[in-house]
TrEMBL record:
Class in the EC hierarchy, top level: lyase
Domain spans labelled tRNA intron endonuclease catalytic: 139-216
Enzyme Commission code(s) on record: 4.6.1.16
Entry GO terms, CC: cytoplasm; tRNA-intron endonuclease complex
Xref: SUPFAM superfamilies: tRNA-intron endonuclease catalytic domain-like
Species this protein is from: Syphacia muris
Protein name: tRNA-intron lyase
Catalysed reaction, written as an equation: pretRNA = a 3'-half-tRNA molecule with a 5'-OH end + a 5'-half-tRNA molecule with a 2',3'-cyclic phosphate end + an intron with a 2',3'-cyclic phosphate and a 5'-hydroxyl terminus
Length: 244
């Protein structure tokens, strides 16, 4: 069974809550730094996050401070120890900006048309060439896969934690574990035996499926225009998690 077609979680992430607050025609402004776009307005950042769980806040997973870390022989007073821990906790980042990856930026700017890059001499109309000049076909493959998965109804997040390109979720990762890890194949004919065994075992241990994405870029396509995405073919192979 193909999890992209039959998984019970499919398409539910396309239902956007009315509480996200983004009105028809509203444009969110962002600033680009390298391969990251930052939305500085905290209200608009919260709207984009609620719209489809895009981007990351620097302080969204702030570590808890252990009081024991501040205890020493010279600081036997428990009140002083707690005060030191509280003071240290206050030093954590208070940045309320939302940081978007290059795939998220492109999707919001071109597919959903709610994001506009306004600074650093990069306009939304030039975003495609900006990222292509930075990463070439690496970016094109990643964005083609990201777009494919988003259109198929998934929330797509970084897969760095599990050694894959993306993780796909049913709605918010705050409420659900990811369903599968996604790995992009640049060479279909490459020997995948060892990599497949390692990845499949790792993901199976955390109850996730493994999906290999194959991106086929025709030779006669002009990659300097975002319209080339319509001619790029994305297919996939799914290896399901099996309960042992």
């Amino acid at each position: 069974m193909d999890s992209l077609r039959f998984d019970k979680k499919r398409f539910r992430s396309q239902v956007v809550s009315d509480s996200c607050g983004i009105e028809a025609g509203e444009i969110i402004e962002g600033v680009i730094f390298g391969d990251v776009v930052v939305i500085r307005d905290p209200v608009k950042a919260a709207k984009v996050r609620a719209f489809g769980f895009y981007g990351n806040f620097l302080n969204e997973r702030s570590p808890e401070v252990a009081v024991e870390c501040f205890h020493s022989s010279s600081n036997a007073d428990i009140d002083g120890t707690i005060s030191s821990a509280i003071e240290w906790n206050k030093r954590q980042s208070c940045d309320s900006s939302l940081y978007l990856s290059m795939e998220e930026c492109m999707y919001l700017a071109f597919d959903l048309r709610i994001l506009q890059v306004i600074e650093n001499n990069i306009r939304s109309s030039k975003l495609w060439m900006y990222f292509v000049n930075l990463y070439g076909q690496f970016f094109i493959q990643r964005y083609a896969v990201y777009r494919y998965l988003r259109h198929d109804g998934w929330v797509v997040r970084s897969g760095l934690l599990y050694g894959v390109d993306f993780l796909i979720y049913y709605q918010s990762p705050c409420n659900y574990h990811s369903s599968a890890g996604v790995r992009i194949l640049s060479d279909v004919n490459s020997n995948l035996d060892n990599k497949f065994i390692a990845l499949n075992r790792q993901l199976n241990n955390v109850k996730k499926s493994l999906i290999y994405m194959i991106v086929e870029i025709p030779r006669n396509v002009n990659l300097n225009k975002v319209e080339c995405l319509e001619k790029i073919v994305v297919t996939h192979m799914t290896y399901h998690y099996r309960r042992l």
